[in-house]
Amino acid sequence: MPADRSLPTRASLLERLKDLGDDASWNEFYQTYRELIYSVARKAGLNESEAEEVVQDTVISVAKKMPDFRYDPAEDSFKGWLLTVTRWRILDQLSEAENKPAARHIGCFGRRRDAHGHDRTNPRPGGFRPGRALG
Questions:
Q1: What is the number of other CB atoms lying within 10 angstroms of the CB of residue 54?
Q2: Could you tell me the pTM of the whole model?
Q3: Of 14, 46, 59, 131, which is least packed with CB atoms within 10 Å of its CB?
Q4: For a pLDDT cut of 90, what percent of the chain falls above it?
Q5: Which of 1.10.10.10, 1.10.1740.10, 3.40.50.300, 2.60.120.10 would CATH assign to domain 4-134?
Q6: DSSP-H helix ranges across 17-129
Q7: Which of 75, 39, 69 is nearest to 54 (CA)?
Q8: Who wins on pLDDT, 34 or 101?
Q9: Is residue 123 pLDDT above 90, yes or no?
Q10: Helix, strand, coil % over all residues of the chain, rounded to 5
């Protein structure tokens, strides 16, 4: 995983992310920050599936905030804010896990299902498209 300081925050990318329909920019954002978010979630003790869910929930949270987001590197750090959002989503995931029955199970045809019966075999493959997730 790239170290946090090796991920430069580009103001131009953040500005393009204000357009939820800009799939290329959102894919670039996802490819740039996915591993950082995922590794923080894994270090917090989440399993692979839970960490992937934190990645998706974090990106959705970012997408919801981007239209009003103001980036001023002199005042604050985008990555600092992103990691704060990631920690909130980790806490959500841990809280959700506490409220679920302990047993997760394999459904018919070998599909991994959570306690609510949702298919978790391959959560959200192929990058992220916020327009679909928010719409």
A1: 26
A2: 0.68
A3: 131
A4: 48
A5: 1.10.1740.10
A6: 23-43, 48-65, 78-99
A7: 39
A8: 34
A9: no
A10: 60, 5, 35
How many beta carbons lie within 10 A of that of residue 125, not counting itself?
7
- Angle, helices 23-43/78-99, rounded to nearest 10 degrees: 60
How many angstroms separate the CA atoms of 51 and 71, rounded?
27
* 109: its two tokens: 């045809």
**Per-residue pLDDT at 2:** 44
Q: Which two tokens stand for residue 81?
A: 């804010």
Q: What is the mean pLDDT of the chain?
A: 78
Residue 76 and residue 8: Cα distance in Å, rounded? 14
Residue whose pair of structure tokens reads 């740039």 in the numeric block: 32
pLDDT tens column, 99-110: 766 544 444 444
Q: What is the mean pLDDT of residues 65-93?
A: 90
Q: Distance (Å, rounded) from C-alpha 58 to C-alpha 41? A: 11
Q: How far apart are CA 85 and CA 79, in angstroms?
A: 10
**Residues near 25 by beta carbon (within 8 Å), at least 6 away in sequence:** 13, 16, 17, 19
